[in-house]
Fold this sequence. Notes:
- By secondary structure, this protein is mostly helical.
- Helix content is 69%, strand content 0%.
- The chain contains ten helices and no strands.
Amino acid sequence: MDAAQQEATARARELQRNWYGEPLGALFRRLIDDLGLNQARLAGVLGLSAPMLSQLMSGQRAKIGNPAVVQRVQLLQDLAGQVADGSVSAAEATERMEEIKRSQGGSVLSNTTQTTSGSGAPTVKRVVREIQSLLRSVAAAGDIIEAADTLAPTHPELAEFLRVYGAGRTSDAVAHYQAHQN
């Protein structure tokens, strides 16, 4: 990828962050992970072609043009939160994804929706994702790792935090979060 393409991709991801709360690549990868999908299945549920989904994920394309697709993204985010907190089983999620696939509508994607557990408290996974999203909205993973490397000699715990939440996998960040509670 040449410099102009890299600049266009960075610009598209920044637009996605402004419009959808985070780059679509991160949002879609989280849905794939949480709902046990592959890219082709996610594209099918959303009503996008696989190449269009890939272009949105990679930043080659910035905006979801169809409001019904935007609504389906929101519905899948809500469903993923329910699966994460255990209020919806995998079998129920599969059934709901079929309903979402058939849904129409034009609501806008909200990055303020907070999925909660039955007690009304945010789930650990949701809290971790919010931390990851915030860090990743401030800097790219490579920059976060570079900052962590700079901090490591004098502030190893803070460096570890940056690496785990800024550039690591959600499952590792959940484990780190749980290990540092109490």
